[in-house]
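seq as requested:
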Amino acid sequence: MRLDAEGRRGLTLISPTLIYALVMLAAPLAMVVTFSFWTQNYLDIDTTFTLDNYHEAWTQPIYQTLMARSLIISVVVTVVTVLLAFPVAYYISFRVTRRKTLWLFLVTIPFWTSYLLRVFLWKVILGYNGVLNSALMGMGFIDEPLTFLLYNANAVVLTLAHAWAPFAILPIFVALEKIDRSLLEAAEDLGDGPWRRFRRVTLPLAMPGVIAATLIVLIPTVGDFITPRLVGGTDGLMIANMIQIQVGRANNAPLGAALAISSMVVVGTLSVLIFLVGRRFGGRTR
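struct tokens:
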């Protein structure tokens, strides 16, 4: 099929982006997929096609445990983050009448510091001799430092929820801003109270933003390995930490690739289900 002049101009405009995406995204992903069907014995790589890596990734108890823990932590982080982000976005959208830009600017302040630095700060706050324990002991609430604050799954959830909060606030705010206020006025005229208006009008119309925030938080947190490594301890390690070990210290890149692809498949399936459920219940008033 021959392209007209306008079609050629459009193709020319998107070509750099398309080439960049193919080179930087598609090609590395294709290499990971290819590696997952090979085997490695220290420095020697056997390119014979095999499914042994996937069999091990899906049947070994340690990998099943890490995958389940990663999903549970990510789901909890997502729920906590969205539940905390929604009131903030709602307040900025419906209660702030002036200087909304300033409020959004304040939301983005955590981006000013390195992600790694924010994780270290939570480690300082939750540590045995950290800020929280020192404050509680100083006020007389405890006699000795609490040991359950750090190096567990709860510390991972808290740190990740704080780190990803701005990513949840912004899409929810955008969805709330698009809501026609006349619909809320009509619901009020028909006798609906604040809670009923929120449940029947605001929440369904804000659901696209909620779903976007859910996916934005859920997908990356499953693959996070810095936070579990620094604040998770042995009870907070996730599947990404095992992938790092396999590719690095264990020198078994094919198994690490199989674990990575398996994680992508699981997260992708879960994301599609969330999208379909959100599409079913969102976008219209009831």
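The domain at 54-281 is CATH 1.10.3720.10 (MetI-like fold).
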